[in-house]
Amino acid sequence: MTPITLEAAKKIATLFTNNSAIEVEVNSIATGSSYIVPVIPVSQVYLSSTPVNMADMQQQLGYPRLSVFCSRFVNQHREKFRSLSGTLAITVEIAVTADLVDLVENWMHYYVEAVSNILRKSAGDLGDGVFFPGTYQVDVQLAQTGGSGFLQLAQVTCELGVSRN
User: Do you find a cis peptide bond into 51, omega within 30 degrees of 0?
Assistant: First the structure.
């Protein structure tokens, strides 16, 4: 049986990869504002909590990219007759790089909006005892040197409810 922490991260990653959702959403937002933003290809959505400096050593990882991982798991025993009932925090880390710092900062806004839109549309039962109530938190870091010039990261963290025997 797949560990719940990995299974839940896969469920969230699938929201971005099914029907190229992340590509479509980024294009839709950019087109609506007449701004050119590089898409996040489905091939750049990973199940990984590897820090950016280590991930850059992997040649198959590019920019922009999404890394999806379970960052917290709490079994609260909220349901008396369940062996597992609590919350999972799934983090979607957005990594963006460009030659100019203003490009990195502008693109990040579009990517955060795209990720947020997909999450909002996906609230509800994700199956197998995992429920997404639709709430999330966004933390954007300051741009810094790295990647192909400048690098910026943002983390979108959503709390999933879990209930299993």
Answer: no
Summarised one tens digit per residue, pLDDT across range 103-148 is 999 999 999 999 999 999 999 999 999 999 999 999 999 999 988 8
CATH of the domain at 37: 3.30.2000
Count: domains in the chain:
1
Between residues 148 and 153, the one the model is more confident about: 153
**Separation between Cα atoms, residue 144 and residue 153, nearest integer Å:** 9
Q: What is the pLDDT of residues 81-91, one digit of tens each?
A: 888 889 999 99
Range of the domain at 94: 4-164
